[in-house]
Specification:
Length: about 100
């Protein structure tokens, strides 16, 4: 009997923006993309949120990150932050009071 053919690594990579960094070692990443409506052919924007593991708590809200699909790490976490593509711009100005 022959061995079954082994599949190469088929992990997905996505790029998105961190929208929440309130959990320890977990970040919520929003991924946006555009698609055409099947009937009306209008270009629409869609978005999904993924919980991603961040071992060093390095990513902050507003950062653009690349995430990779992985085995389930918890009930909702199936992604890992690979690297930070672009850091968020943090202003030194205090918020103006009205």
């Amino acid at each position: 009997m022959s061995e079954p053919a082994k599949r190469p690594n088929q992990r997905r990579f996505l790029e998105g923006t961190v929208v929440s960094d309130k959990m320890n070692k977990t970040r919520v990443v929003q991924v946006r993309w555009t698609t055409k409506h099947s009937q009306y052919q209008k270009v629409m924007q869609k978005a999904s949120k993924y919980k991603a593991h961040d071992e060093k708590n390095a990513a902050k809200t507003g950062d653009v990150v690349r995430i990779m699909e992985t085995r389930p790490l918890s009930k909702d976490k199936r992604w890992v932050i690979m690297d930070i593509v672009k850091k968020a711009v943090v202003s030194d100005q205090p918020a103006s009071s009205i």
